[in-house]
Amino acid sequence: METWRVLAAFIIGPVVSLIGVALATNYRGVTEWHVRRSMATASVLGRVPPWRWLPDVPHEERLARFILLERVIGAAFAVLGVMILIAVGYSILTGQPMQAAK
Q: In this structure, is residue 27 part of a structural domain?
């Protein structure tokens, strides 16, 4: 079994889970901070003509929608990190190498 894949999975799994939990629970305002930074960066797109058909909603309403979306994505990341750890644990127990994406 390739040792570097197992070590990488043991590092990536918890990191992805912790980031997901931080986003899903809005730990110390990390989700709101990230959404505000993303909206500030993407504010240039508001002036692009193809985006003009989008409804004009108040800034706070858009912010709340994006925070909710990012919290859902954070929950998915938390589950993904746990799945990575389960996959690497199964790989170790069975002695089969981890499958590479091709």
A: yes
Averaged pLDDT of the chain: 85
Task: Quote the number of domains for the chain.
Answer: 1
For residue 71, with 0-12 CB atoms within 10 Å meaning exposed, 13-18 middle and 19 or more buried, which class applies? Answer: middle
Alpha-carbon distance of 28 to 101, in angstroms, equals 35
Residue 30 lies in a domain: yes
Measured CA distances, 85 to 6, 11, 13, 102 (Å) = 10, 9, 6, 20
Q: In the numeric block, which tokens belong to residue 92? A: 């170790």
Q: What is the pLDDT of residues 5-28, one digit of tens each?
A: 788 888 999 999 999 999 999 999
